[in-house]
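Support request from a user on the community tier.

User writes: "When I paste my structure tokens into the form, the page sometimes reloads and wipes my input. The last time it worked, I copied everything first. Here is what I submitted, just in case something in the input itself triggers the reload:"
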């Protein structure tokens, strides 16, 4: 399964941050069986996770937050702005949000913020349709209901397994936006640590068009920091 997690991996590729951000995100939440059944966007609500990769140089758990910060429409369809925040291994914040239509789960806009500068990334919505959600879902199957306890509390979940790669996923409709409570893979794990409420949009500044030269300068400055 492709490592597209938090869509942030797709966005991270645009920024050249895939090596750090994708490693933190771990699993592919956006093509999981949980999407079809448990996607539940509620403005102002979200989830905080602890992500760990056993095969990474830095095995320190990283915190990832995903939340819904606004509702919108695209061609008459209900859409929502999903915002994701994380940190690089050097402690630099990574903040992004994507406009996603709820029914077909397609991405329509992407905005990144680095060092206080928000930029809208060039994006071709058709590119996200090359691989259907169904293709990935075929690798997963439900093995029944199970109640599990994680740092965020106890949840009645549907337990899914992927026999192809050995991953397991527990999902609940009580968790916004994607239902994930816990996921465990061969070298990755993510666990829900906190349910978020009254979440504000952290991207508050003016949004400019993507400037490759400015982006390179910002990335160079980040790499130069101790």
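"...and here is what came back when it finally went through:"
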């Amino acid at each position: 399964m492709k490592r597209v997690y938090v869509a942030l991996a797709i966005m991270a590729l645009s920024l050249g941050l895939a090596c750090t951000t994708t490693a933190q995100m771990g699993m592919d939440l956006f093509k999981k069986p949980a999407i079809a059944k448990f996607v539940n966007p509620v403005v102002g609500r979200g989830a905080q996770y602890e992500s760990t990769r056993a095969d990474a140089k830095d095995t320190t758990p990283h915190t990832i937050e995903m939340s819904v910060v606004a509702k919108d429409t695209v061609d008459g369809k209900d859409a929502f702005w999903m915002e994701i925040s994380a940190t690089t291994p050097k402690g630099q914040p990574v903040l992004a949000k994507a406009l996603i239509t709820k029914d077909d789960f397609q991405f329509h806009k992407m905005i990144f913020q680095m060092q206080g500068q928000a930029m809208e990334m060039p994006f071709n919505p058709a590119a996200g349709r090359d691989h259907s959600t169904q293709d990935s879902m075929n690798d997963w199957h439900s093995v029944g209901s199970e109640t599990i306890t994680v740092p965020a509390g106890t949840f009645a979940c549907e337990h899914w397994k992927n026999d192809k790669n050995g991953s397991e996923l527990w999902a609940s409709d009580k968790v916004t936006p994607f239902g994930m409570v816990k996921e465990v893979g061969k070298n990755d794990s993510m666990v829900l640590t906190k349910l978020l409420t009254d979440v504000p949009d952290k991207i508050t500044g003016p949004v400019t068009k993507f400037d490759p030269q400015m982006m390179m300068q910002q990335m160079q400055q980040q790499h130069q920091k101790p």
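Agent notes: The reload is a front-end session timeout and is unrelated to the input. Residues 1-27, 29-34, 128-134 have pLDDT under 50 and may be disordered. DSSP finds five helices and twelve strands in the chain. Escalated to web team.
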